Amino acid sequence: MTALVLDGKAVAAQSEAELTQRVAKIKEKSGGKTPILATILVGDDPASATYVKMKGNACRRVGMDSLAVEMPSSTTTEQLLQKIAELNNDSNVHGILLQHPVPEQIDERACFDAIALHKDVDGVTCLGFGRMAMGESAYGCATPQGIMRLLQHYNVQIEGKHIVVVGRSPILGKPMAMMMLQANATVTICHSKTKNLAELIKQADIVVGAVGKPEFIKGDWIKDGAVVVDAGYHPGGVGDIELSAIKERAAAYTPVPGGVGPMTINTLIFQSVESGEKSIG
Length: 281
Ligand code: NAP
What we know:
The protein folds into 2 domains: about 30-120, Leucine Dehydrogenase, chain A, domain 1 (Rossmann fold), CATH 3.40.50; about 140-260, 3-Layer(aba) Sandwich (Rossmann fold). It has helices at about 10-30, 45-60, 75-90, 110-115, 125-135, 140-155, 175-180, 195-200, 260-280, and strands at about 5, 35-40, 65-70, 95-100, 160-165, 185-190, 205-210, 225-230, 250-255. It contains 9 helices and 9 strands. The protein has about 280 residues and is an alpha/beta fold. It is globular and about 55 Å long. NADP nicotinamide-adenine-dinucleotide phosphate binds near residues 172 and 233.
């Protein structure tokens, strides 16, 4: 069996073509207004700077604007909260992205939670998470929401399946597990204190690797015919799962790169366009 490649790059490109038309419609209806995503980068971490740049570029590709806010690494929680309040009150801004991680003196959770719910297009607030988990409307956290959109695109069945999510971070593992539960999966959440990880993963119909360690999840822990989703990305182009070992045995898998990453950015843009449509279109 050769596994189906869940091609996030292609699905994101197709989505961008649709979003370009939706943005053009907003402009047409509103006399030239476009959705605006404000991106906040605090400090000088080069990886974060690259991610923010990629997000700004994706906005431009669909005809949206982005507002790049850059703050020094000495920024305090109060200064960042002040900036977020300004952006919340700016009616020209439709979405706010605070790039994670922020410098350690900042209370990141307080800053995420200061983002107004209707501008939380990256899905990082506790309120948005709680609403999503309760089945109420909210923008999904971008990476897990992007994974859900990718699986839906390829008609991967989730209902009734056993999903094992490895990782429980607030921006990935936890919301992923809740989204899968909402989609009627049976969900096991694993983390650094989990015992018998390999045995649990062997039971999975769908495995989501969100560990942050290169090829930590071994190919022989994964059963034949499973769907394999790898959220990791590390130097050398490997993810959190030993993908080379499952390409002939899995039903489907997300490549690294070109799987989850493009869907994360696309979901942020998708949700920004939705927010723009609600307020100007
Ligand atoms: P994180 O905050 O570091 O969380 C890692 C999770 O893995 C934690 O819940 C941790 O458990 C768990 N873990 C660590 N060691 C483990 C072990 N030995 N056994 C089982 N679980 C273990 O990372 P993250 O932000 O969720 O990111 C996870 C991965 O996704 C990274 O590779 C990151 O680069 C990638 N990522 C990709 C995108 C994208 O757009 N493609 C976006 C975000 C993240 P504890 O909670 O017990 O510590």
